[in-house]
Amino acid sequence: xxxxxxxxxxxxxANNIRLKKNTIGFIPTMGALHExxxxxxxxxxxxxxxxxxxxxxxxxxxxxxxxLEKYPHNIEKDRLLIESYVDYLFVPSEQEMYPSDFHTSxxxxxxxxxxxxxxxxxxxxxxxxxxxxxxxxCVPTRAYxxxxxxxxFMVVSQMVEDLNINVKIIGVPTVREESGLAMSSRNVQLSxxxxxxxARVYKALLDTKNKIIxxxxxxxxxxxxxMDLLLQIPNSKIEYVAVRTLxxxxxxxxxxxxxxxxxxxxxxxRLIDNIIxxxx
Amino acid sequence: xxxxxxxxxxxxxANNIRLKKNTIGFIPTMGALHExxxxxxxxxxxxxxxxxxxxxxxxxxxxxxxxLEKYPHNIEKDRLLIESYVDYLFVPSEQEMYPSDFHTSxxxxxxxxxxxxxxxxxxxxxxxxxxxxxxxxCVPTRAYxxxxxxxxFMVVSQMVEDLNINVKIIGVPTVREESGLAMSSRNVQLSxxxxxxxARVYKALLDTKNKIIxxxxxxxxxxxxxMDLLLQIPNSKIEYVAVRTLxxxxxxxxxxxxxxxxxxxxxxxRLIDNIIxxxx
Lengths: 280, 280
Description:
Two copies of one chain form a homodimer.
Chain A: E1 2-4, H1 7-19, E2 24-29, H2 35-47, E3 50-55, H3 65-70, H4 75-82, E4 88-90, H5 94-97, E5 104-108, H6 116-119, H7 123-138, E6 142-146, H8 150-162, E7 168-172, H9 192-213, H10 219-231, E8 236-245, E9 258-266, E10 269-277
Parallel strand pairs in A: 1-4, 2-3, 2-6, 3-4, 6-7
Antiparallel strand pairs in A: 8-9, 9-10
Helix pairs in contact in A: 7-8, 9-10
């Protein structure tokens, strides 16, 4: 695995790979890598000739300076974890990604103020902008995103389609800890007690999925049911519980495949999770 | 010259050209082609293997429905004018460029509410978004923009740099009618009388340039001088007169190369023009 720090270097490498008609699988990350990332890398490895991973804690997608400051990072540990599976690790500096006269921002309407967008104003603009930069720099054939961040996957997919960017965006199922807790770089911030408690989020999603499968079709009733389960989790603060279609449209009555999305804090750690319920 | 209507078709053609290591020169237009466009095409012809021109009257960059409606178009005339010099003419429909679920918008900060951005709110977002789409669809090596739309050239250059899009943006000097009036698709909307009057805009720019060369260094005084000249044009309504550095920064005292930009209506026709003054 070669470690590259400059935009111009990885861009040349990537363009040469594509000119030779080899495929590139790309995984953008903010570091603090875990098994969820390894699963994305494995998918990319299976489907492409070359695998590029980026690590960049993107300040523009943080909506809170304290959150940015405490975001975990350990580049040396990350490097060791992935070096057997990855061809190029791209680790640009902030100056490299955002020179002082940087001015451009991408808005994917509808998402900007919905769900994560409502609670993290400006988050998706920052995320979409940096993902776009990585896509044009690393010119991947396929780029891989974890479905734990379901709305992020939808925002990136929409941007790529709208701007005609020549890449396939692939959503990869959430990897979970044995307890059911969705793998996340933020999990290391949880106390031991809170980490056990956090497993109840997925249990609530599973219970609510069963409620739907048992016949409940009213979105509001389903959301209320899930909310009541989450409210029983000690030390937590719920931000949203939402039933949506897979393209994230609101629906009063469940008549198709849906995704149930939740966001909450446990202690001072913000967590999100979701579950897809197929309407067979 | 082949006429292509589908995004997927021109995209395949363009990507194949680039895979064969041929270069593409691209000129995005809104039709109503004139000698200014021919000059852009000539430049592209000289510097590239293949030349692609697009014609698309982009509704998203019009800030006024009436202005969009009366924008001149004559695709058959355009086709005949350029067919000897161009390899591919791309003429997508609105549905082809903006499917019903289109949601993405690009903002190039600083410009969004400045000069043209101030008087045509949302104009640059619409323009930047469509230019981005054309650049990812037609993957040009070089793209050509007339410097009559100086701020547009700066917005596109900034977007391309910020988003790491792999294309060289080239600004081409304004072509003028014999009278000095800057070539523009909108000129055909001027009455015969107004078209003669409109030539006085460039005369005002030249006079003001001489004022600067003669030693006037105060931007405000220079702007006032130019404004007074424009105010003498009958049937006109001035929107702005601005002295800026070449990257379009405000400066109180002229100490470097500058651009003097003006926008005004004559009758019901909105015109813009500018002149660069080198500080030797």
